[in-house]
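S.,

Sequence below, as promised.
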Amino acid sequence: MTTGERVVRAAAIQMAMDTSLDRNTRAAIDRIRDAAARGARLICLPELFRSRYFCQSENAELFALAEPIPGPTTALLDEVAKELDVVIVASLFERRAPGLYHNTAAVFDGRDGYAGMYRKMHIPDDPRYYEKFFFTPGDLGFKCFSTRAGNVGVLICWDQWYPEAARLTALAGADVLVYPTAIGWHPEEKDEVGEQQHSAWQTVQRGHAIANGNYVVSVNRTGFEPGPDGGGIEFWGRSFMAGPSGELIAEASDSPQESLIADLDYAQAERTRINWPFFRDRRIDAYKDIGRRYIDAQ
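The prediction came back faster than expected:
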C-alpha cells in the first residue's frame, strides 16, 4: 500500500462448513474471488475454514486433518493471492512436527505472496472446545504484517478476549486487528445465555478498537455442526467490523454464506489516535505486574 492509499476495502468471508475439506476450500476460493471482484483488498477467512470444527471431542484420529505450512493449502492460496493481488488471512491446522500442532493463520500479500504466519497464543479448554488437546500455544509472539492492505495484525478466536494481545499487536504497528473465529452456542444454553454471550464477544472486541485506535475485523463461521456427544455447536455468524471509536461499520447476520465488505479508512484511525492519545498517556513505568499470573494480597 502506498502512502497515498489510506482507504482499504476489507472482506470478512463468513462460511458454513460441510464435511468435505476440498469443497470447503473451493468454496473459500470462490468467495475470495467474488470479494476481490467487489474491490476487497484485505480478505479474511474464518478460523479453521477447511473443515468442520473438530475440537468438539478429543479424538486423536483428527490430527490427520493437519498439514504443514508451507503446504498444499498455502500453495493454493498463495497462487490466488498473487493472481488477484489481494491480501488473504487464512487460519489452518498446522502440522509442525509429529506430536506438535498449532492453530495458525497464514498471511499472503498479493503479488509478493506468502508473508508469514501467526500461531494462536491463547488456547481454550471448555466443553466442545477441547483445543488444548490439539494445539500447542503459539511461540511466535504477537505479529503485525506490513502488506499492500496496510499493517495487518492477526489474532485468532480465543485471543479476542485478551486486551494484552490486542495491545501488543497494536503496539507492533497494526492498522487493523483481524480475528478469524469459530464461536457459537451450545444449543441447550442458547435461550438462557445466548444473547449475553454474543454481546460480550462483540463488546470486548469493540473495546479493543477503542483502546488501540484501530479497526477490528472479526470473521466467524456459522451454521450448526453436530458433535459426537449429540450436543453440537450452533455457530452464530454475525461477523462484524468496528472502527477506531468502536463504532460498528458493518455486521453480518447468521446467514450461512455472507461476505461482509466495508472500507477501512486508516487516516481516520490516525486522527482518532491523535484525539484520544491513549498510547501517549500509557504509564509504562507502572505496568511491571502485568506479567504476573496474579497479584496476591500483601
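Helices lie at 21-37, 72-84, 131-134, 163-171, 190-212, 266-275, 278-281.

Coffee later?
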